[in-house]
Structure formats: C-alpha cells, structure tokens
Amino acid sequence: MINQNDATKSIREKETIKGTKQSLGLGVGIIFNLSKTKKSDSIALNLFYQNIDAGSLMTKLNHNKVEINTKDVFSFEVVYYFNLAKAKN
Predict the structure, then answer these.
(1) pLDDT of 87
(2) What is the per-residue pLDDT across 15-28, written as a single tens digit (0 to 9) for each?
(3) Residues with Cβ within 8 Å of residue 78, at least 6 apart in sequence
(4) Could you tell me if 35 and 43 are in contact, meaning their C-beta atoms sit under 8 angstroms apart?
C-alpha cells in the first residue's frame, strides 16, 4: 500500500491466491508462406476465443478495488516462423 503523504512509509504486502479453472477455447488461423519454396519462413494469423474468467481470482486480492473480468475474450495473434533448415539445390 502506498502512503500518499510519505512514500518512505509505504507498506509492501505479498498476497497469494490459488485457484483452478476449466476452460474451453477455440482458435482459428491461417498460415502464409513467404516464398514458393518448401522450406521458407512463414507468418501465421490466429484468432482465439476463451471463455475462462481468470480475473475472478485477481478480483479477490485485498488491495484490488476494480473488478476484473476476462470471460468471453477474443484475442488476435501474429506469429513469425523462421525456417532454419538449409534448402537443397
């Protein structure tokens, strides 16, 4: 907790909350090869849906004044794949 009047008198507290959640997620993606050879670098574009509410555990922390909701979240991911294999001539 931060003392607004004197930062040197601030208090540090460590909290641990444990929990288990089950999740059902769905991901859809597409991969683009960057060249026409078999061994090329590629880029993947992925869209994910998660229905787990991991924020419910964070909301239980004593110093958290904001309700955190992570249920029904869509996320987008861009992945670059490097191909380290040498192409045969």
Answers:
(1) 60
(2) 787 877 777 788 99
(3) 43, 44, 45, 46
(4) no
As a whole number of angstroms, the distance between CA 59 and CA 81 comes to: 37
Are 48 and 75 within 8 A, CB to CB?
Answer: yes
| Residue environment code for 49-73, b if the CB has 16+ CB neighbours within 10 A, otherwise e | ebeebebbeeeeeeeeeeeeeeeee
Contact indicator for 87, 62 with CB cutoff of 8 Å = no
Element (H, E) at 58: helix 55-59
Considering only CA atoms, which of 36, 19, 24 is closest in space to residue 71?
A: 24
Q: How far apart are CA 23 and CA 29, in angstroms?
A: 19
